[in-house]
């Protein structure tokens, strides 16, 4: 059973990683023009930089797939980064209004899906005897 759950977790991380990799790569290549909004060159540069960070988040997530049961620390750090980003997005929602549907879905990934995957990984790590010492 533990091996099957581990495999399903690996599949989930692989699929979930498609979102930040695709969005990050697209944003890095197309810049803010992706949204159709006109912004300054400085704003576009910042958009591309943040897209690159998002791409990195996805790649780091994918790097956890092999031996996922032993990647607790890495996945917890990644989850913390994603949650901080999600809380920042939530703050923006409160300060400036409701963004587009893709941004609402991203918020769900950041504040619900990613933490649930992290908790799942911790469960799998425990089942395999590879959890971090307390």
Describe this structure in words.
It contains 4 helices and no strands. It is elongated, with a radius of gyration of 16 Å. Helix 1 packs antiparallel against helix 2, helix 1 (2-30) runs antiparallel to helix 4 and helix 3 (72-96) runs antiparallel to helix 4. It has helices at 2-30, 41-63, 72-96, 101-127. The protein has one domain. It is mainly alpha-helical and 134 residues long. The model has no long low-confidence stretch (mean pLDDT 94). It is 78% helix and 0% strand.
Number of domains: 1
Biggest sheet features: none
The share of residues in helices is over 70%
Poorly predicted runs are none
Residue fraction in strands: under 5%
Calculate the mean pLDDT score and round it. 94
Order of helices and strands: HHHH
Rough outline = elongated
How far apart are the termini?
25 Å
What class would the helix/strand composition place it in?
Answer: mainly alpha
Question: What is this entry, summarized?
Answer:
By secondary structure, this protein is mostly helical. The protein is built from 4 helices and no strands.
Entry keywords:
single chain, 134 residues, mainly alpha, 4 helices, 78% helix, elongated
How would you summarize the topology of this molecule?
Layout: H1 2-30, H2 41-63, H3 72-96, H4 101-127
